[in-house]
Amino acid sequence: MVVAYRSQYLLRTCKTSSIIKTLSFRQQDTSAYRKNYSSICLQPAPLDDLAYIRLRCHYRRLHFSKEPTRSPLTKLSPQEVDSILRANEFTQEFKDGSVKSYDSNQLPSNNPIEDTRSEASCLLTTGLLVGVFDGHGGGACAQVIAKRLFNYITACLLPHESTLQYLLTLDQPKPPDLIESYNDKVQFVEDVRDIYKESFTKFVKELSEEGYKQHFDMSKAIERAFLRLDNDLSKEAIPVNGEINLKTLSVAMSGAVSCVAHIDGPHLHVANLGDCCAVLGSLSETGSWIPKKLTEEHNAYNPIEYDRVMSEHPKQEKETVISMGRLLGQLAPLRAMGDFRFKWSKEIMVDVVAKAFGEQMIPPNYHSPPYLTALPDVIHHRLTPRDKFLIIATDGLWDCVTPLEAVRLVGEHMKGKVTLQPLKLPRKNMKLSEINDMLLQRKEGLKIKPRDSNAATHIIRNALGGTEYGIDHTKISQLLTLPDDVVRVFRDDITVTIVYFDTEFLRHCPA
C-alpha cells in the first residue's frame, strides 16, 4: 500500500520540484514510531534525495518498460529465479463440488513478509473459504486474523442446533474442528492460544443463546464474523488488572486489510476490507476472456468511500480526517482490522497506548474516533458455466497488472498447462472425433506452454518480468536481488490465490 501511493504520486509528475516535494513528505519525522510501525506511514529510506530520484527514474524504466532490459548486471540464473518464485507455491485439488482446485503463491518484499493467506474447507457446513491478508505496521495482525477469521465465519454459518452441539464440545481437551485448513504453517504460542480460545468460546455461546433464525442472511453473517473478531482483538489488547500483554497489544497496534471468498456450489460470496482485490475470469461466447472486478478499494481515491469517511466526522475536521490521501495523514486504507490507534477512544489511547509506546503514537488531530472500521463489503455472485476461475490477490499484484491482464494470463496458462503433463483420456470409449479435438487443443497449447505449472507463480513471474516480447529474465533478476533497504520502493509483498471452477458441475447443479 505504501509503494502504491508513492508510485502513483511520483509517476503523476515530471517536474523535479514536485519530486522534491514528495521526498520531503517521504522524509517527514516519523522516528518516534518507526521502530514498531514502520509500514503505517511512508517509510523514510536510508537514501539521500538524489539517490532516491535516481532509483525512481530507474524504476520507471525497469518496471513499466515493455522492452526487454539491456543490462549486464543479471545476478540470478533462470534456475535460481525459479527457486525463488516457487518457494511458497501451493496447489490443492478437490474431487467434488464447484471448485476443482486452487493455486496459491507468495513473493515477499518485506522481511519478514507482511502478507498472509489462508484456505480451508468448512466441515460442519458446506463450502470452501479462501482469503488473502495484507498486513501493515508489521505482520502480526494479518497472521492472527488469517488463523482465526475462518472459524468465526464458520460459526456464524452454523444452524442453531449445530451451534448448541458444538458448544458442548468446546470444554473437551481437543474439540472438533470447524474447518480443515490447507497449507497452514502458523501455530500460536500457548498463552495467546488460551486467550483466543476463551474469546471464541464466548462468541459461540452468544450465538447459541440467540435461538432459531427464520431468515438467514449470508452477507450479514460474514459481516458479523469480521466485526466480532475485530472487537475481540480490541478487548484482548486492553490491560487486565493493569497488566499490559505486549503480544495482544502488538496485534492491535498493527493492522491488516483482507479479501475473503466463500464458495458453496454455485454461490460465491466475496468479503472485501481495504485494498485487496478479487477478479472473476469468465469466457465469452466468442472465446475471449472477460474480467469482472468484484471488489472496490477502500481508500481515498474511491469517492464513495471518501464521502463515507468525511460524513462520519464533524465539519471542523474536513481538512484533517483525510490528509495527503491518508486517514489522519497516516493510513492508506480507510477500512482495516486491527489498527486500534485509529479506533480507540482518546482515553484508552492515553491510558494504554501512550503509556506503552509514548504519546507520539496518538495520531495528530485525533478528535472524534473511531476513524476506521472493520466492516467489509460483501457481494454475492451466482456462478455460471462461463465462470472459469477467481483471482484473489493483495495490492502488490495489482500494482503491476490490470484485472484484464491478470485474467488473460491465467486463461492462457489454463490452455497451455495441459501440455505440461502426459496426455490422459478423461474416460473410456471416447470417439475418435473427441480424441482428435483433444489433440488439436493440445497442439494449440504447445504454442503457449508455460514455464510454471502453478498459475499463481505464472502470474507473479509475468507481473515482474512480462514484456511485449515475453518474459525478461534480466528484469526479474534485478527485482529479486534488490537490497532490503530499497526493495519496497520497487515492489510490495505479493500474495495470489487462483480458484478454478468445475464447469460440468456448474452446468448441471440446481439453482
Automatic annotation (TrEMBL):
Residue ranges occupied by any PPM-type phosphatase domain in the UniProt entry: 99-501
GO cellular component assignments? mitochondrion
| Keyword Nuclease in record | no
Keyword Metal-binding assigned to the entry: answer is yes
Sample GO molecular function, one term: [pyruvate dehydrogenase (acetyl-transferring)]-phosphatase activity
* InterPro entries referenced in this protein's UniProt entry, alphabetically: PP2C, PP2C_BS, PPM-type-like_dom_sf, PPM-type_phosphatase-like_dom
Q: Where is the signal peptide, in residue numbers? A: none
**Keyword terms of this UniProt record:** Hydrolase, Metal-binding, Protein phosphatase, Pyruvate
Task: Report the family membership.
Answer: Belongs to the PP2C family.
PANTHER family attached here? GM14286P, PROTEIN PHOSPHATASE 2C
- Kindly provide the name given to this protein in its UniProt entry: Pyruvate dehydrogenase [acetyl-transferring]-phosphatase 1, mitochondrial
